[in-house]
């Protein structure tokens, strides 16, 4: 091999070494450097954001305590569960056909509970989305709000239905009247129709569900005619 050919081969090998060094070493280092610079820029932004919070640190801490207390207060306002027995007891307490302002519940039907809302703590849509997400679930548990509806067939007086509405809302048991449909009976002078009511309860709280105390109902009597039996007949 001629000396010129050897020089040419060495030059080619030098070019290949330089190309490989650029392509597989320098370029990779350059990409890593760019990524690190981008990460540093992001971290500088995060640091600046966090430093901007420092003057208001005490305010944020006090607001967190206040909001935690507010959440706890709101959670305590909801029962842990609502079963048909609860609405049956409510209807029984309001049912009185012997008074002038009366309500008589002659039928009841119930729907299964439906989940209407679940709390979430997603920070991905916050204005500070560049800050690493913080796990908050252990501090703020997840609650699920359920609702269930009862439909009642009722006979009532005008004063009675007003008292029923007032009783339901004065109890503050997270119940809402959805609709009342009544018609006037000219023969009896009474109102008849239906009432739909929704009850709400919260799952995931520490509240313990308390079963309603349903008193025993007398089913009958041994003396259906109410006769008076003389003790003298027994003696004879």
Describe this structure in words.
By secondary structure, the chain is α+β, with helices and mostly antiparallel strands. The protein is built from 5 helices and 5 strands. The chain has helices spanning 3-53, 57-76, 84-94, 158-170, 231-235; strands at 103-110, 114-118, 144-156, 175-185, 190-203. Strands 1, 2, 3, 4 and 5 form a 5-stranded antiparallel β-sheet that branches. A hairpin with a 4-residue loop joins strand 4 and strand 5 (190-203). The model is unreliable at 124-137 (pLDDT under 50).
Unreliable stretches? 124-137
Largest sheet at a glance?
5 strands, antiparallel
Shape: elongated
Q: β content, as a range? A: 15-25%
Alpha-carbon distance between the two ends: 152 Å
Rg result? 38 Å
Relevant terms:
single chain; 236 residues; alpha+beta; five-stranded antiparallel sheet; 42% helix; 22% strand
Task: Write the topology of this structure.
Blueprint: H1 3-53, H2 57-76, H3 84-94, E1 103-110, E2 114-118, E3 144-156, H4 158-170, E4 175-185, E5 190-203, H5 231-235
Antiparallel strand pairs: 1-3, 2-3, 3-5, 4-5
Briefly say what this structure is.
With 236 residues, this protein is α+β, with helices and mostly antiparallel strands.
């Amino acid at each position: 091999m001629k000396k010129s050919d050897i020089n040419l081969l060495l030059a080619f090998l030098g070019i290949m070494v330089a190309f490989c060094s650029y392509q597989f070493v320098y370029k990779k280092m350059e990409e890593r450097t760019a990524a690190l610079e981008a990460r540093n820029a992001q971290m500088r932004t995060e640091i600046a954001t966090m430093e901007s919070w420092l003057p208001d640190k005490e305010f944020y801490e006090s607001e967190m305590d206040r909001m935690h207390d507010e959440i706890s207060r709101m959670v305590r306002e909801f029962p842990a569960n609502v079963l048909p027995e609860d609405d049956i007891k409510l209807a029984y307490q309001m049912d009185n056909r012997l008074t002038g302002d009366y309500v008589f519940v002659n039928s009841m039907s119930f729907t299964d509970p439906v989940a209407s809302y679940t709390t979430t703590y997603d920070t991905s849509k916050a204005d500070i989305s560049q800050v690493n997400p913080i796990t908050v679930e252990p501090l703020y548990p997840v609650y699920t709000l359920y609702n269930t509806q009862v439909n009642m067939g009722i006979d009532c007086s005008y004063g009675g239905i007003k008292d029923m509405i007032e009783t339901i809302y004065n109890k503050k048991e997270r119940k809402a009247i959805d609709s009342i449909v009544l018609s006037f009976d000219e023969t009896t002078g009474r109102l008849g129709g239906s009432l739909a009511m929704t009850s709400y309860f919260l799952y995931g709280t520490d509240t313990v569900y308390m079963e309603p105390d349903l008193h025993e109902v007398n089913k009958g009597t041994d003396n259906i005619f109410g006769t008076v039996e003389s003790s003298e007949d027994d003696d004879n």
